[in-house]
Structures are given as C-alpha cells and as structure tokens.
Amino acid sequence: MRKPRSQMIAETRTKLIAAARAAFGTVGYAETSMDDLTASAGLTRGALYHHFGDKKGLLAAVIGQIDSEMSVYLRAIAAKAPDPWTGFRDECTAYLELALEPEIQRIMLRDGPAVLGDPLDWPGQSECILWMTESLANLAETGRIAPVDAEAAARLVCGATQYAAQWIARASDPKATSRKAIEAFNLMLEGLLVRS
Q: Quick check: helix, strand or coil at residue 193?
C-alpha cells in the first residue's frame, strides 16, 4: 500500500534535516557537500531544493529544530526551580552552558550567524524575547525585580546571553570562558532584584 503524500513529504524532510544536522555538526556548513548529504539520506539534490530551496534553507530548518529542542530543555530547567526568579536565572544560565555542546557551538553559534545573519532576527529569538518579556513583567509586577520596561530588559538580557554564548563557542578555552561568563552574567542579572 502506498504511503499518503503528506507522510512521504514529512519523511523526506526528516531525512534531509537529520543528514544535514549530522554533516553541519561535524564538518560544518561550508564543508558540507550537498551531493554527499543527499546521498547519505538516500535522496537527490532535487529533493533538497524542492523542500528547502537551497543549502541555506536547509540550515535554517536544522537551526529551527535545534532551537525547538533547546527551548523544551530550557523550559524544563525553569520549571524545576523553586520560584520564578530562580527559574528565569537558571534558564539563562543553562543557555550559556549549552554553548559548550559541540553541535550547538558549530551550528547555532558559529555557522548559523555567519550564514543566516544576526540570531536576534531568527524566528526562535522572537519567541525567546516574548517569553523573557512576559517573565520579567511578572517579576516586576510581583515586586521581585525593580520596575523596568520588560521588553527593553528582555532584549538586553537576550542580547547578553547570545553574545556570551558566541564568546564561549569561539573561545580557545570554552569551559573557562563559560565559568567567567556565567559568573558575570548572574551578577548582572542580580542588578534587577529589588533590595529589601
């Protein structure tokens, strides 16, 4: 029995994204051959172009997948916290810790920005800023942090985490850089707290 067209499309996309993720994560975007990538997925270049337009479109799809996985992971970290402030801080810290993962370093923090431009313009970042804005607005309303324009603070925090993650990913000693970045970042975040 023949599979429904929608299922065949989904399977082709899944195969291409998985093959691209493996290649981009190991040899990098620039060194990935589209012929080798499509052959490893058992598909043709035509399938890649049909579903993603080009190599850049495929990279965007891979980034979208990784970004979704990161969001689920980070929200789970926040949900384990004893209070909203700790959850917010822990989620930001966990994002910086993810910058130590080789796949995230290469795809999300080095190749992604080089090929797709400023990560703050990516669709996933808009969701991140919205979530941060809501979280900071709630923290301000409950008096946990000082009154602040929540969107402005969210954009500053998001920018700081993104820049710090890229710094970690490019550092000659990522672990040492991560420790320094997290310590400084958490000290910066504490500046938002209301002092009693």
A: strand
